[in-house]
Design brief:
The protein is 40% helix and 24% strand. It is of the alpha+beta class. The chain folds into 2 domains: 161 residues, 2-Layer Sandwich (Ribosomal Protein S5, domain 2); 138 residues, GHMP kinase, C-terminal domain (Alpha-Beta Plaits). The strands form 2 sheets. Strands 1, 2, 3, 4, 5, 6 and 7 form a 7-stranded mixed β-sheet that branches. The radius of gyration is 20 Å and the shape is globular. Bound molecules: (3R)-3-hydroxy-3-methyl-5-(phosphonooxy)pentanoic acid (PMV).
Length: 319
Amino acid sequence: MPVISSSACAKLILLGEHAVVYGQPALAIPFSGLKVRCVIEPWINGPTGTLHIKARELQLNQPLQVLPEDNFLRKAVELVLAELGVSQTPTCKLTIYSDIPISAGLGASAAIAVATMRALSAFLGHPLEKETLNRLAFETERLMHGNPSGIDNTVIVYEQPILFRKGELIEFVYPSKNLHFLIADSGIKKATADTVAYLAQQREGNPQFIEAALAEIGRIALFGRKAFEQGDLSALGEAMNANQALLAQLDLSCEALEKLIVAARQAGALGAKLTGGGKGGNMLALITPETQEAVRKALLSAGAVSIYQTNLKGVQDND
Ligand code: PMV
């Protein structure tokens, strides 16, 4: 069997995180600046049926069978073997390299699962179709997040901007103008499972208030989708700001994120909000090439521990 290397990108939610768990629409884009790579090689003379897994970022260096049954990587491997009808685990070494920060709102767990499943299915001679890969990756997300919407695995598998709504056909969306973003890490790690569970608990206590806020986020996501497609950058920025205000009302932001968001806006960003699970992790600012340097500097002074940049090419933009 050959050595196989596969990768998967990170993702950014432009609008609609959390509300998407409750059936509202959300807008997300792939973020190819950060990636997971998974390399699988045959383990010559290794113990038959042993898949050794090494992932520095997850502090793993052991045979798969030693991992707990509910470990998402073990699940990812088992799902691929079952899907392909392979009864014996291949004798191989699987190594994961990831530059996507964990528990930071950028979809690291979904990207790790997708890269692993892509590599393993190719190693076994049957690369999975996107639809199948997406279905299996959603199963691993359930282990990680408890009640995921499916947005992370979908945007990571298809690697295209999407308007996502739980249980509905994926809608691919295209910006008409070039879009430029800066992403800044607050340095605070927060598991998405915790923030999703926190909101669920809040919703039980105050269903009317929470439902109204989630519905409003859904409306903002649809408004933002139009702005995204029409290339109306200031309307898209406004949507991001309005979305952030609601996320803060839902207590899903935090001081460090607010500091970064305010700094970005004051330095000229058209809009800024947290991205992903919140209460830590990363924020996202919509910028222009003209404001980029000022916003970057402001984010650094406001405490960003890492800053990334990504651009989306507009379909009608020749710049
Ligand atoms: O924090 P991340 O990258 O896992 O993004 C989570 C997005 C949520 O809407 C909060 C959860 C979900 O499953 O949609």
